[in-house]
């Protein structure tokens, strides 16, 4: 029944709104034209963040070529169909369009991050794939795919590309935001970022390597220093996660096959098993706190796993 309702909601949301205006992302618009998105986000909030208000906000983002921000806003509005179409189109754009520049942003060990430009308004952060089995680029891609699987909406679109100068690596859409260290206002979805860190074993999350975009929404970047083979430590859930029962259900419903089909392209089998093991332990913790989410079948599986562990 839940799946049927979800399908109906997607169909309804796609039919409810007029389609977004066509925007040529290859057109080199003037990025210097200032748009106060903080003010626009405040207007949408004052209007109750209704679908109509969010739709208007998404259009403002899109015409300014803030594509990821437009996608996140469409999803918040419930317009999942158009958000998905825009996501797939933009993934293709980032994968095949030529880039210029290679501004060095820093790096750790042999890993380097460079900001490259598709136009004056659209840029990305390129990280070269590691010669090891799993490195910065691989974990950046894995974090984005986890974000997609669980509908977290905190990791910017990331694709694998072959750069003509720097080689194979990950390309992550560059989100305009402020370092978390400089933001004192409420930060939305921070718990979701912490959830990804927990699943990937990211030990390097600090106020200098994540962003807050207009509206106070968290943007999770820099997942390269992940260690999923390390000990899984989760005494408490990240803030706000236990109250988000839709997210908890998505975690519980995530199947091994879907997970492995998506992340198996960038993670080794050993790392893949370790990450999936973390998700399994996370599911167990969810059912301890919210046993009614799993039903009888889930409780029986949890009981069997505990018996086998002893």
């Amino acid at each position: 029944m839940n799946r049927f309702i979800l399908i109906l909601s997607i169909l309804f949301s796609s039919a409810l709104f007029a389609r977004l205006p066509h925007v040529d992302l290859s057109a080199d618009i003037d990025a210097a034209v200032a748009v106060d998105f903080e003010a626009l986000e405040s207007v949408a909030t004052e209007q109750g963040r209704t679908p109509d208000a969010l739709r208007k906000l998404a259009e403002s983002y899109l015409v300014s070529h803030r594509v990821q921000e437009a996608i996140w806003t469409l999803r918040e509005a419930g317009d999942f169909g158009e958000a998905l179409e825009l996501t797939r189109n933009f993934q293709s754009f980032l994968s095949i369009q030529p880039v210029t520049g290679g501004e060095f942003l820093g790096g750790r060990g042999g890993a380097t991050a460079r900001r490259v430009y598709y136009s004056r308004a659209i840029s990305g952060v390129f990280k070269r794939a590691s010669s090891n089995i799993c490195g910065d680029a691989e974990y950046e891609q894995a974090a984005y795919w986890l974000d997609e699987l669980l509908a977290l909406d905190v990791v910017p679109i990331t694709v694998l590309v072959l750069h003509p100068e720097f080689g194979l690596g990950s390309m992550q859409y560059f989100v305009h935001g402020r370092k978390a260290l400089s933001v004192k206002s409420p930060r939305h979805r921070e718990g979701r970022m912490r959830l990804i860190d927990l699943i990937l074993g990211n030990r390097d999350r600090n106020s200098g390597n994540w962003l807050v975009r207009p509206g106070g929404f968290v943007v999770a970047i820099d997942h390269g220093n992940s260690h999923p083979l390390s000990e899984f430590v989760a005494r408490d859930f990240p803030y706000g996660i236990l109250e988000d029962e839709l997210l908890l259900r998505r975690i519980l419903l995530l199947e091994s096959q879907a997970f492995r089909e998506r992340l198996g392209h960038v993670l080794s089998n050993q790392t893949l098993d370790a990450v999936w093991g973390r998700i399994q332990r996370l599911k167990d913790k969810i059912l301890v706190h919210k046993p009614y989410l799993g039903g009888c079948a889930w409780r029986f599986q949890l009981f069997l796993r505990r018996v086998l562990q002893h």
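Residues 2-96 form one domain. The CA atoms of residues 151 and 247 lie 8 Å apart.
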